[in-house]
């Protein structure tokens, strides 16, 4: 028996002939580079990563970030960094990177048991 | 095998999958397809509404509609960016849309004939989209979930502005009331189709559920939508165009009539009222923008070069 199997992902869109194969990065020279956007939403707080966008240069990246990421007063300062300059730790090494912190509970204040009467500490 | 176990373990413990993590090829492909098609839907979705920007009945309505359409562009961007984290270029994703290879939500292949359609789109189409998107805030892929959270925050104004347009019309003249009902009549069934085929006809939804990409089935979401709208329409004093719509005390849900699946497939296959127009508009925009993209890049290169020269000099 020949059964036609279809896959539905976003509601009414069928899977067949629908594109979206991963391909090699063929970043032609006319494609605008990718930038990561960081926004400070209030004076005194850190800039936080909010997303990314394409732009021809830093100035355009900031202008586009303003239009896309601060339409509802989400920010008072924007940083942009071209994505290729971001270096990240390798998730495969997560165990060796972060495990050593696991058994060092003496780094937390709750590790130390002190009498109830003691205040301001 | 080891990697697959780690992946499954993360899903089981509701830990999000991030771009650098190992994931099965099929999971990656499914996401690329789903997120990019979701992005295309946001972008194509600007067209039916854009149709009314210049003809909005007041400055207030015009400003709100402009803001809404601008939001959709932003939503498209968030989703395209999420797609890129899976290893496909923006350019090729857009190429898939323009060549007709990738699909977008069929709802945008229906025309916006009157101003009331803008209200009906906000209430029904955005309402249906929100059902889907609220669910997707908990999807297993981190960048997709984050994009959805951002989108949901912005989307609720869309639905409210749509409902308010209909509410105003529903309290207006006889002609305005008729216009309101007419728009609801035309948009109701296509909105129900937005949730996709019945669960029985969509066997592979299960894989997406297992991967926690999808968290609720098509029929569950559709029922939820019907239940909500059946109550909301009373506020408008309008009718939902379904003679079989009736509260079912036993099920604690509304029963509703049959969806015309023939129409559904027809529109999916490209024979809807506006399929060709929509794609043509997207292609034209892309082609017309070509010189702008090139000029901006040339300018960026030139000014970078200049800067370097002054440094050397």
The separation of the N and C termini of chain A measures 75 Å
What Rg of chain B, in angstroms, do the CA atoms define?
A: 22 Å
State the strand order across the main sheet of chain B.
1-2
Kindly report the CATH topology of the domain at 29-86 in chain A.
Answer: Ubiquitin-like (UB roll)
Radius of gyration of chain A: 24 Å
Shape of chain B: globular
Question: What is the N-to-C succession of helices and strands of chain B?
Answer: HHHHHHHHHHEEHHH
Low-confidence stretches of chain A: 1-11, 14-27
CATH architecture of the domain at 29-86 in chain A: Roll
| Arithmetic mean of pLDDT of chain B | 94
Classify the beta-strand content of chain A into a percent band: 15-25%
Decide which structural class fits the backbone of chain A.
alpha+beta
How many strands in all of chain B? 2
Question: Helical proportion of chain B?
Answer: 55-70%
CATH superfamily of the domain at 29-86 in chain A: Phenylacetic acid degradation B
Give your account of this protein's structure.
The complex is a heterodimer of chains A (121) and B (313). Chain A has a domain at 29-86: Ubiquitin-like (UB roll). Helix content of chain A is 14%, strand content 17%. Chain A has 2 helices and 3 strands; from the N terminus they run ββαβα. Chain A has a 3-stranded antiparallel β-sheet, covered by helices on one side. With 313 residues, chain B is mainly alpha-helical. Chain B has 13 helices and 2 strands, in the order H-H-H-H-H-H-H-H-H-H-E-E-H-H-H. Chain B has helices spanning 2-12, 25-44, 46-50, 59-84, 90-98, 115-136, 142-170, 174-193, 205-210, 218-236, 261-271, 275-288, 290-312; strands at residues 246-248, 253-255. In chain B, a hairpin with a 4-residue loop joins strand 1 (246-248) and strand 2 (253-255). In chain B, helix 2 (25-44) runs antiparallel to helix 4 (59-84) and helix 4 runs antiparallel to helix 7 (142-170). Chain B is globular. Chains A and B meet through strand 2 and helix 1 of A and helix 2, helix 4, helix 5, helix 7 and helix 9 of B.
